[in-house]
Each structure stands twice: as C-alpha cells, then as structure tokens.
Design goal:
By secondary structure, the protein is α/β, with parallel strands linked by helices. It is 26% helix and 24% strand. The longest helix has 15 residues, at 232-246. The protein is globular and about 65 Å long.
Length: 340
C-alpha cells in the first residue's frame, strides 16, 4: 500500500476521502465505495500503486477525443475497480473487479510512472490517457505520471465520469490537458436507472471548473440508452447546457448503446435516434455533434461550421483526410476548437 492523497482524519480513527464526490467516511479497516482506498489505523491508503489492468497504444480518437491532437496515438492505461456501478458498463471485467492487497500483484502489470512515460516515447505516442476505468480512483498514480509526462512534452488526458472533486482537480489541473467526460443523462430519474449516484449536478460543476479554472480541453460523451435517456426533452436540455456552459464549439459525442449486463434486455440504440439527437444538438447551436459506435456514418466527420466544408474525414478511428491548420479551417480560417 502507499499513502493516499485528498483525505482528512475524523474521530474514532475514521477518515473522510475527499477525492470524489462521494466523500466516503471510512471506518478503520474498511474501504470506500471504490474498494481500493483503505483506512489503515486511521490513515487512508491505496492498494493500486502502479498496478495496471490494461495497457494499449490507441488512436486518440478512440477516447473519444476528436478535437485534441487528431491523428496522434496515445498510451492508454487503466487499473481496477470504479466508484460508479453503471448497469451497462462495457468494461465490467475491470470496473467491477475489486482486488485485495494480496491479489492485485497477481492479476496486474506493474507499470511505474517512469515506465509509462518511457513506453509512450518508445512507441511513438504523443501522450498518455488514463482510461478503461475511472482514473480518479488511481489519482496518486495519475498525478505522478502526469507530472513526468509534461516534463518530456507528452500530453495528458482523463477519460472520466466527472466525479473528481475541485480540490483534487486543483492538484492535478496544472498537468492535465484533456477531459473526455461522460454526461450519462440529464435528469434524476435517468441517472438512477444508469448508475447509483450522488447529485449528478456536481459532475456538471466539475466539468465547468475544469474548463474555466484549468483550461482543460473538454469533450462530452453521452451513451444514448433506449427508453432511459433518449427523450427529446432530456437531450435538448443537455445540448442547451453544453452550449451555455462550455461553449458552442464543445464536441458532443452521442454514442450507440449495446445491451450488456443489467441492461441486456434493452435493444441497441437505433441509428435514427442518434441522427435525431444530432439534429437536436445542432438546432440548439452546437457546432460539433458526433455519432459514435456507428462505423462509417458521416456524422463521424468534422465539418467547418462557417464554410460547411469537410475538414476531417474519419473511417472508424482513422483520419483519412484533414484540412486544418493550427486548429482552424484550412479553407476559411474558422476556429474549430481543435488542439494540435
């Protein structure tokens, strides 16, 4: 175990973890909701250390981040467990595995922050992303890695459910470049059907704080689940919130749901539903609304909102045509909110 960050002592050897919005109060010998942060004799520890469950060189578009160094590759790292219990999680094998201190070394690859940075450079990756499960619960590791990555010119990204607290963001914010962040729904009822959660509006506050305080590049992802979060009213309200709070040039990825786990009884999202939500987003003033998990759909591409020309054509996660210069349209000079 190693010492955890972002916690405070309470009476009777209890501690309060201040890393995510659950703010777990943990008695001695117990864990928080993520199961990997343990109260040992009145002090908070983490069992995760440098233990990775998954490591891969990915296109950055897979995160999905379409407006952040497009066409580059990124070293993607994940660990075990999660602080959410999403009923249709596609990474169930990772997010719902809660290893003990005794077993974690047996099921993991040990990749220290130094090794991660060296690996990214060796394989020609332009940055490091912490993904596959919620990176916030791996905070100590991601913080060390992000600091090292920035020293050698690598970019950094969180693929996150947005549950990190402002206090934790203040610590990692200077070293974090991008957020691919889920807004899973836009109502109490829908969020309850997707995952048991605290007040989901805190996620919205976190996203705005990441953008305004630390200038973190934001792209929003919503997995559209039939009969749960696919109503026109809910999606219109979400699109309106993105525009008013993050800006009209913020990419919104609306992705196709496929049945899994406790949501296996639901059908895949009809493509027509995604197209309808795309049109809702555009009608609310968003300039970059993308469909995901629909290979070859033309809404995977980037079009200039001013001159309407195709500026990035994608086939899956591959860029096959690109007409941008320093984040602007090559044809008319419009700012596309692309970091490159």
């Amino acid at each position: 175990m190693e010492d955890a960050l972002m916690w405070e002592k309470l009476p009777d050897k209890k501690v309060r973890c201040n890393l995510c919005h659950f703010h777990c109060v943990i008695p001695e010998g117990k864990t928080g909701i993520c199961k990997v942060r343990v109260n040992v004799n009145g002090e908070l520890k983490t069992i995760l250390d440098s233990y990775a469950s998954s490591v891969m060189i990915d296109p950055i578009e897979k995160k999905p981040l379409y407006h952040f160094y497009p066409g580059t590759s990124v070293l993607s790292l994940g660990t075990w467990s999660c602080n959410f219990r999403c009923k249709g999680c596609q990474n169930y094998e990772l997010s719902r595995t809660f290893p003990t201190e005794e077993t974690i070394a047996q099921i993991s690859k040990k990749i220290t922050p130094e090794m991660a940075v060296e690996m990214a450079k060796r394989y020609g990756a332009s940055g490091i992303a912490w993904t596959y499960n919620e990176p916030t619960i791996w905070f100590e590791y991601t913080l060390k890695s992000a600091k090292l990555a920035k020293k050698v010119g690598l970019y950094t990204a969180y693929v996150t459910n947005g549950s990190i607290t402002e206090e934790a963001l203040d610590m990692i914010g200077p070293y974090l470049d991008a957020f691919s962040v889920d807004i899973k729904a836009f109502s109490d009822e829908s969020y309850r059907k997707i995952t048991p959660i605290f007040d989901w509006r805190k996620i919205l506050d976190t996203i705005v704080y990441a953008k305004t305080k630390w200038n973190i590049h934001i792209e929003v992802v919503t997995n559209v689940v039939p009969t749960i979060n696919d109503s026109e009213e809910e999606m219109r309200n979400l699109a309106r919130w993105i525009k008013e709070n993050l800006g009209r040039k913020t990419p919104w990825h609306i992705t196709r749901f496929f049945p899994y786990l406790e949501l296996s009884h639901l059908p895949p999202t009809p493509i027509e539903t995604l197209e309808k939500i795309h049109d809702i987003g555009v009608s609310e003033g968003l300039e970059f609304v993308y469909t995901g998990n629909v290979l070859g759909h033309h809404y995977e591409n980037t079009y200039c909102p001013k001159c309407k020309r195709l500026v990035i054509r994608r086939e899956g996660f591959n860029i096959v045509e690109k007409h941008t210069v320093n984040g602007k349209c090559e044809f008319c000079g419009e700012d596309l909110n692309i970091v490159e």
